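Researcher: I'm preparing a figure for a lab meeting and need a structural model of a single chain. I don't have an experimental structure, so a prediction will have to do for now. The sequence is pasted below. Please return the structure as tokens so I can convert it later.
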Amino acid sequence: MWAEIALFVLGATVIVVTGPRLSRLAEDLAGALGIGQSLGGMILLGASTSLPGLIISFDTALGGQATLSVSNAVGGIAAQTVFIAVADVVMRRGPLSEEVTASASLMQLAILLVLLTLALLAMLVPDAFTLFGLHPASYALVVAVVLGFRMIQTSEVEPKWYARRLAGQATQQDTRPESERTRRGSVLSLGLPGEYLLVAGLMGGAGWLISYSGQRLVVETGTSPMLVGMTGMAIASSIPELVTAVSAVKRGAVSLAIGDIIGGNVFDTLMIALGDLAYSAAPIYRDVSPAVPFLTGIAILMSSVLMIMLIRRETEDLGTDVGTESYLIFLIYLSGVVLIFT
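Model: Understood. Here is the structure written out token by token.
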């Protein structure tokens, strides 16, 4: 297994090195394109860091591993929600919710809850009719994501919520000096998109190395598909979100970090539809193990707590500079893992 271990270490090293750079490029590119940090984090960071998970879900579904495919997607959503709590710990200057521009983030979470609920309903009613070999929920997931992009963009352009420390001020783009806004607008001519695509490609390839080597290690040890999907593959393929989110929070780009993780979660729901497309035996929702719907419910609960955190915008931090909801997210995730595997 030394070859698999070497690939895992190589992939992790590349992600740790390129993650901070990717978050910086995404922030600059979002400013150059005139979109906010939340939408930029969702599209520019969320999509690129979700590439490894998309590859895993497609390949495992193609190989007939329904539980592994779906639990990788849903487990990744749960793990990445925990990463928000990790980012709250890293920030160390008060609860994270105080510095989030909540309008677009709340819309992202609302869309994510809709998508997860659609997936859960499909698992509970898996024998519905199929259309061109796909469960109707798979089409609904794709349509909801496309429509959600538009609603998130509208929330970013016409925000109804503001970060507490920015209340009464204009948006971040408007308060920058004219020279900085001009610099942001000129970065497109300096090869920024090309560099972003290159780093995102390296990130995706490194994440795939981690996912592939981790899958091989778990298969050789005979671990159950649910354990592989929920913890091994999901966490391994979600390392890009953790690295880039922590890097963004350290630089003060909190909305970018939140948009990265929630955006990655939204893209991860598309893994289920992609898995249904690759799974030829039946609608993929019918062949998952009974623990997968429970895991989906855990992800919904964690996302709901996160939404409460952003709405309540607490100042209480139990003297640790970490929001109380972050502790609750940790507790829900750990309790879910224990309940599933015991």
